[in-house]
Design a protein that fits this description.
- Helix content is 47%, strand content 18%.
- It is of the alpha+beta class.
- The protein folds into two domains: 41 residues; 132 residues, FAS1 domain (Roll), CATH 2.30.180.
- The strands form two sheets. The chain has a four-stranded mixed beta sheet with strand order 2-1-8-7. The protein has a four-stranded antiparallel beta sheet with strand order 3-4-5-6, with helices on one face.
- β4 and β5 form a beta hairpin.
- α3 packs across α7.
- The chain is globular and about 40 Å long.
């Protein structure tokens, strides 16, 4: 009889400990899931890093080049990081720091204030075309006299002037292929008419 009671007690302890361990594992998994959810909420697609050997997305490329530091700061202030790392294809007309310097004094400082977040976001998404426009395609669009539809809902004129491509009146200086489309480097900020 004692051996039966001992066996039942031993089985009870085993089941109790198993449940206890399962609860700890569930809590651990739940805690990890909550952290991943928090991380993705804080960073979204913009928080995803490229694996070694993978091509960088538009935001990763912009962050790696000092001449885009104002653009990156504006993107982060406006909270539109995910718009430029979307899987695409996207074409981003990326103004250099010198393009922001051409704006009237105090403009950038005013735009990055929290109360102007939506206005800044609107200006920035006016630099993003939700389509694949390598230089070859831009030349075709210019030849046909077409305008490019931008993520802001506005359109930009694309022109070929003496063999150089201009978008929204500004010359494309260089083009870079990225994992989610193209970056075309420009030296002006494309402020849309409201």
């Amino acid at each position: 009889m004692k051996s039966k009671i001992f066996a039942v007690a031993l089985m009870f302890l085993f089941v109790f400990n198993s449940c206890k361990n399962e609860t700890k594992q569930t809590e651990s998994v739940t805690s990890e899931a909550k952290q991943e959810q928090k991380d993705s909420k804080d960073h979204g697609q913009a928080g995803v890093e490229a694996a070694e050997g993978e091509q960088l997305n538009a935001l990763q490329v912009a962050k790696s080049i000092d001449d885009f530091s104002t653009l990156v700061a504006a993107i982060e202030a406006a909270g539109v990081q995910d718009a430029v790392v979307n899987v695409g294809p996207l074409t981003i007309f990326a103004p250099l720091n010198s393009g922001f310097d051409k704006l009237p004094e105090g403009t950038v400082e005013t735009l990055v204030k929290p109360e102007n977040k939506s206005k800044l976001a609107f200006i920035l998404v006016n630099h993003v075309a939700p389509a694949n426009y390598p230089m070859k395609q831009l030349k075709k669009e210019a030849k046909k006299g077409r305008k490019l539809y931008m993520a802001s809902g506005k359109y930009l004129v694309v022109e070929n002037k003496d063999g150089e491509i201009y978008v929204g009146g500004t010359k494309i200086l260089k083009s870079v292929k990225v994992s989610n489309g193209w970056i075309h480097v420009i030296d002006d900020v494309l402020v849309p008419a409201e």
